[in-house]
Amino acid sequence: MAETPIRLGILGYGEISRRLSKLSKAIALVPNATLVAIGSRRIHKATGIMSADGFPSWVKMYESYEAVLDDPDVDAVYVPLPAKLQPKWAVAAAEKKKHVLLEKPVAPDVVELDRVLAACEASGVQFMDGTLWMHHPRTPEMKEFISDRQRFGQLKSIHCCFTYYANPEFLENDFRLKPDLDGLGALGDCGWYCIRAILWAADHQLPNSVTALPGSLFNNAGVILSCGASLDWADGKVATFHCSVLSNLTMEITATGTKGTLQLHDFVIPFKHDTASYSTASESCLEELSTGWRARPSEHSVANDLPQEALMMREFVGLVAGIKRDGKEPDNKWPAMTRKTQLVLDAVKASIERGCEAVEVGS
Fold it and tell me: Which protein family is it in (predicted)?
């Protein structure tokens, strides 16, 4: 007998409809998940979008987020609201015993995030943030390489860049660039991915301090459009990142060890929907007229059976099913990753505000 699928609700359809449309289609690809309810304060606009997207007829539309949380048919919710609104609704969801998948940036700061995590822990519900690339099968394969002391050696540096060119309408109207709704701008949108990538490569070991790089750019409301930072660890590791909504699409990671190097050019969203690649090199050297290697640099391709959105949803609903049906405890690695990412993001923001002064990372 097939298992009853985990029933999902969405809070906020219409606010970022393209992303939600992709996620709702991803839900349909996951056998043990089904979308049952959507709450939108712009219900007429949302209904029109849903009709155009071909949503199933059984999906219930509510004019409030509260109604979704009060629906006994909803097991878990995806919350893709602006950063300053998400903590309120994530806490409310947890208090209603709904498992929480929270879009990034998850909160304006770690104080607000801790409210969410405390509520989830108290209610015994799963928390996860929406960092898609963490769920691609390429990610653990790359981690296997940089954890290999024979091929990669000891990690020494990580450099990451995520930028895209936003059009004038986005720059004028997108909620991510509104101080009353988000306030984190490019740092929360693009920098979140860079910080997570750096922590991922560093086994989620927090740096001692971060220092914002000079040259941050802001809109007229004071929200970050472009910035960067350097991070340092007590063992000598270093990292840098750059994020921006003013530059051509770039999604790169370079991780360098004492013996090897890992590089990829599409870490946020793979260039292809069914396969993703990365390159490695080991024991490179400078020769008289060229570069030499013990083994030539190689490119590796990793196939995936589902798009990243569906892979993330499959992971999330699998954890929810384990709690709901098998009495398992929530997987604490996901909230731990989120909190460390937020701590570094907070330190970067503080360093920017203090004129690029070095800021210790909290705990």
Answer: Belongs to the Gfo/Idh/MocA family.
Which residue's structure tokens are 């109604």?
A: 67
Sheet holding 127-129, edge to edge: 60-62, 33-39, 6-11, 76-79, 99-102, 127-129
Beta bridge partners of 210: 231, 359
Closest CA to 191 of 83, 105, 112, 308: 105
CATH 3.50.50.60 fits 6-133+308-330, yes or no: no
Tell me if residue 59 falls in helix, strand or coil. Answer: coil
What is the CATH T-level fold of the domain 137-307+342-360, as seen in this structure? Answer: Dihydrodipicolinate Reductase; domain 2 (3.30.360)
In the beta sheet, which residues pair with residue 224?
218
Which residues in the chain are classed under CATH 3.30.360.10? 137-307+342-360
CA–CA separation, 361 vs 208, rounded Å?
Answer: 6
- E-state strands within the chain: 6-11, 33-39, 60-62, 76-79, 99-102, 127-129, 155-165, 209-212, 217-218, 224-232, 238-244, 246-257, 260-264, 275-286, 291-303, 359-360
Tell me how far apart the alpha carbons of residues 93 and 108 are, in angstroms, rounded to a whole number: 18
Single out the residue of 307, 270, 321, 334 nearest to residue 27, CA to CA: 307
Residue with tokens 């969410």: 116
Tokens found for residue 189: 């949108």
Query: What pLDDT digit, counting tens, does each position of 317-349 carry?
Result: 999 999 999 999 999 999 999 999 999 999 999
What phi and psi values does residue 235 have, to the nearest 5 degrees? -85, 5
Of 96, 246, 279, give the one whose Cα is nearest residue 177: 246
Question: Where in the chain is CATH 3.40.50.720?
Answer: 6-133+308-330
Alpha helices, DSSP H, located in 42-107: 43-53, 65-70, 86-95
pLDDT in tens, 122-180: 999 999 999 999 999 999 999 999 999 999 999 999 999 999 999 999 999 999 999 99
* Residues with catalytic roles: 104
The CA distance from 90 to 232, in Å, is 32
pTM of the predicted protein model: 0.93
DSSP labels, 95-146: HTT-EEEEPSS--SSHHHHHHHHHHHHHHT--EEE--GGGGSTHHHHHHHHH
